[in-house]
Every structure is written in structure tokens, then in C-alpha cells.
Design a protein that fits this description.
about 10% strand, alpha/beta, 14 helices, two-stranded antiparallel ribbon
């Protein structure tokens, strides 16, 4: 039987970080409208607070709440304790600095399928091994760690051109492995809605279908950005209404690959929580092909990003 969180992870558009050392913000994050909340035990938590953050996360999960947990990287002093304390709750694990498929496979084996895995690819070696990481049993979806990756490469984390190759490698690896399209990295300019819209449009054009969020006010814009537009939905319905045989719609030849793309557009129009019954793995979503947009959507006004932030110290 498939893990009940696999479908949620595969279909999510918005994944919101909340610091593991701020249990007072866990419930607020859960009510933000994000498809998934990620309790962060890694970057958001100082070394001296790791143990208490782990305990707070475990206590919140023990109360019946659900979240993804970003554990500390394998090989750090805190990883083993994170895995021992969190895995028992059977929640998805985000594994940072993912670059060794053998390490991911070991985590999958030790958790015995109880914890769907999200490798966070944020090193040059991780990008080069993206396909090997995505094919590990237990991996549901990959995510891009654009800030750490950019730091390692000596480039700006918001430079679209500089990171296009890395993003495309992750998209291709996910498709080749038959898992859900990847999750794009963060937009650090939390009070710049134009930057957020531009980042979402760029990621969607490359084949990403979700994004990591660091502020609750980013969630609505990100969700909108990965939702098909009315024009895209009208196109998809016209294509499907034309039938299964090769034909022409609006001067474009329609054959099986175009029909599959149209079905993917309609599937993405459904809110993530309503796409599949709990426990079902939406395999068709993993193979959807993105609709390329040439420019950001003018019809969707940007939302003003406010405060307080869940993730700001």
C-alpha cells in the first residue's frame, strides 16, 4: 500500500518552511494555505538549538499534525538523532545536500518505506548525479536548493541564466525517473512580489510545478503561478474535444503527445488536495509536460507581501 503522503508531496505546488526552533509558528504555517509545511531543523536552527528544535518538531507531530521535516545533512553531528526521532512519525523527509544515491538508499532502507524522501539538490555533485538521486526507491520528488548551489558555484542565486542548466538537469532527471516534476528553490526577496512572479514564471517554463516558500505571503502568488491560466484551460479543452485522432486545432497539428499535454494542463487545474484519494500515487502527474509561457501573467495582480513572517528571525 502506498504511503498516504506520497500523493500530497507529488501534487503540492507550495511548500512553506517554518523554523524548527519556533514551535509557536507551526500552527500558523499549517493554516497559511500552503500545500505542505516543512519544519526546518537545518539552516533555520542554530547549532545550540538543534536538540530542542528536534524535540519541538517531534512533539508537534506526536499530536497528530503532519508536515515534511528537513533534517540536518547526513554526516553532520545531528543527522542520526534527527532520523531516529522523526522517522517514527512516518512523515516525509527532506534530505539536504543530497548528492550520494547510496546515502539516500540507506535512509530509505532504514525508514522501511515509512518516510517518502525529497532530496534537496544544492551542490554541483548533486546536480551531476540528479538522475541517480531521482531513481532511488522511496524518492517521491526532488527540490532545488538554489541559494546553496549558487554559493558553491560563485554565482548569484537569483541569476536565472546562470542556474538554467542546473534547473533543467533536475527537470530532465525527474522525468526520466518517472517521479513528479521538481520543486523550485526559494525567492529570498520576500517583499518583492514582482521578483516572485518572475521566478515562478521562469521555473514553470522550465518544467517545475512547485516552489519552496519562506514567507506565508508568498503562498498565494506561488499557487496562482503554477495554476493553468484560463487561456491554457480553454486550449486544453479544445484539444481534447477534437478527439483522439490526428487533427488540427487553431492551425496546430494535434496528435498523442499534444493530447497528453492537454490532459496534464487540466489535471494541474485541480487543487492539489483534490487530485487523488489519500494514499493514491498520481503517476500521471509525474509525467505532465509544462505549458511554456513567454511572459508573466498580467491578469494576475501581484499580492503585497506583508508581515509578520514565519521564517524571519
Amino acid at each position: 500500500m502506498s504511503h498516504p503522503d506520497r500523493a500530497r508531496v507529488a501534487a503540492a505546488r507550495t511548500l512553506l518552511f517554518v523554523p524548527g526552533d519556533r514551535p509557536d509558528r507551526f500552527a500558523k504555517a499549517a493554516s497559511s494555505g500552503a500545500d505542505l509545511v516543512i519544519i526546518d531543523l537545518e539552516d533555520a536552527v542554530a547549532p545550540g538549538d538543534k536538540d530542542s528544535a528536534r524535540a519541538d518538531a517531534a512533539a508537534w507531530l506526536a499530536d497528530g499534525n503532519r508536515a515534511v521535516v528537513r533534517v540536518n545533512p547526513p554526516g553532520t553531528p545531528w543527522f542520526e538523532a534527527d532520523l531516529a526521532r522523526i522517522a517514527g512519525h512516518g512523515v516525509p523527509l527532506m534530505v539536504p545536500k543530497a548528492q550520494d544515491p547510496a546515502v539516500l538508499a540507506d535512509i530509505a532502507a532504514r525508514t522501511d518505506g515509512r518516510c517518502p524522501l525529497i532530496p534537496l539538490v544544492e551542490t554541483a555533485l548533486g546536480v551531476e548525479r540528479a538522475l541517480d538521486l531521482c531513481t532511488v526507491a522511496g524518492v517521491v520528488r526532488a527540490a532545488l536548493g538554489n541559494v546553496d548551489l549558487a554559493a558553491g558555484l560563485g554565482i548569484a542565486h537569483d541569476d536565472h541564466l546562470a542556474l538554467t542548466h542546473a534547473r533543467s538537469r533536475l527537470v530532465l532527471a525527474s522525468a526520466a525517473a518517472g517521479i513528479a516534476p521538481p520543486v523550485d528553490g526559494v525567492t529570498t526577496a520576500v517583499r518583492d512580489p514582482a521578483a516572485l512572479d518572475t521566478d515562478v514564471t521562469h521555473a514553470r517554463r522550465l518544467g517545475f510545478t512547485a516552489k519552496l516558500c519562506i514567507h506565508p505571503a508568498q503562498v498565494p502568488s506561488v499557487s496562482d503561478g503554477f495554476t493553468p491560466t484560463p487561456d491554457e484551460l480553454r486550449w486544453a479543452r479544445r484539444v481534447l474535444d477534437a478527439g483522439e485522432s490526428v487533427t488540427m486545432v487553431d492551425g496546430e497539428m494535434i496528435d498523442r503527445p499534444v493530447l497528453e499535454r492537454a490532459r496534464g494542463v487540466l489535471a494541474r487545474a485541480t487543487p492539489p488536495g483534490a487530485r487523488t484519494p489519500c494514499g493514491a500515487t498520481p503517476g500521471h502527474l509525474a509525467r505532465e509536460q509544462p505549458v511554456v509561457r513567454a511572459a508573466p501573467k498580467a491578469a494576475r495582480p501581484s499580492r503585497k507581501l506583508g508581515s509578520p513572517s514565519i521564517t524571519e528571525p
